[in-house]
Amino acid sequence: MLDKNGIAKRIAQELQEGFYVNLGIGIPTLVANYIPHGINVVLQSENGLLGMGPFPYEDEVDPDLINAGKQTITTIPGSSFFDSAASFGMIRGEHVQLTVLGAMEVSQEGDIANWKIPGKMVKGMGGAMDLVASAKNIIVAMQHVNKVGESKLLPKCTLPLTGVKCVKKIVTELAVIEIVNGSFKLLERAPGISVEQIKNATAGNLIVEGEIPEMVIN
Fold this sequence. Notes:
about 220 residues, alpha/beta, Glutaconate Coenzyme A-transferase, 10-stranded mixed sheet, 3-stranded mixed sheet, 4 helices
């Protein structure tokens, strides 16, 4: 079973040369620490930054440099700063090749719920609504089950939706799963995790074809 950093490491393997990538709040932000060597990607933060680097060590912290989740970050040479209007122009103009988001629920149709739990106060959906509407490729990084052991991969989301039929792939502590024709398709399993364990943790329809390989986490 993977921890949060393991999930981020596996998602980092999805990055391709020249990608502009937006990392959502939570587990997705950890991907910045695991960019593969030799791959040139540019991380975009919706609060107005191109060229986000890994999280800073204690002696590198600059309180003026933060990501959209208000965590302190670093920048890389050549990074640039701009206002929210320019940032969301990039997003809405479909200039971001990959978006990595956290989620509370994902449906087998690729719907995502990641912004509101009924009865709890929230400030609003925020930039997630623009990202799910505009991104060409969305990967979800999340735990497979919630705190009481209930599956978060469902036939249909029960929480208010952020986006409809937009998720392409999901990476959890148990598996890598793709959305295919209204079903979850199992691509890889976490080291030491059986296919049966993944089936038991998945409420939606799960397609399992052939021998399922273990993830390779470097």
